[in-house]
Amino acid sequence: MQAAGGAFEPLLPCSNLDCQGGGFEILEAVEWMISNRCEEKTGLLVCIGWERIKGRQTKPSPCTRAISYQIKLIYRKSDRAKPPTKNNAQR
């Protein structure tokens, strides 16, 4: 998955066909990376969904799908980080 311009889908879909309301919440990892200026992170995410066993009237159980991930962020250089100069301080 790639995202540009600050827009991306915060919930990656679960591949389990019996999973309902599931997916992998990647947003928390990305927010942590940004707040800590981290460029690379790896980890494991567990699906947040639930599944029922087909043909049975039982309570749903948590989906057991998990993914390992590697995220790489590239930070743009920003003009905001520059101290004001004589020319742009008068604007």
Account of the protein in words:
The strands form 3 sheets. Strands 2-5-6 form a 3-stranded antiparallel β-sheet, with no helix packed on it. A two-stranded antiparallel ribbon has the order 1-3. It is elongated, with a radius of gyration of 20 Å. With 91 residues, it is α+β, with helices and mostly antiparallel strands. It has one domain. The protein has 2 helices and 7 strands. It is 14% helix and 26% strand.
Feature tags:
three-stranded antiparallel sheet; alpha+beta; two-stranded antiparallel sheet; elongated; 26% strand; single chain; 2 helices; 91 residues
Question: Quick recap of the structure?
Answer:
This protein is an alpha+beta fold. Helix content is 14%, strand content 26%.
Order of helices and strands: EEEHEEEEH
Give, in spatial order, the strands making up the sheet with the most strands: 2-5-6
Q: Percent of residues in helical segments?
A: 10-25%
Which residues sit in consecutive blocks of at least 5 with pLDDT less than 50? Answer: none
Q: In percent, how much strand structure appears in the residues?
A: 25-35%
Which sheet architecture does the biggest sheet show?
3 strands, antiparallel
Overall pLDDT metric: 83
- Shape by Cα distribution: elongated
Q: Classify the secondary structure makeup into a structural class.
A: alpha+beta
Compute the CA-based radius of gyration: 20 Å
Number of domains: 1
Distance, first to last CA: 41 Å
- State the helix count: 2
How many extended strands?
7
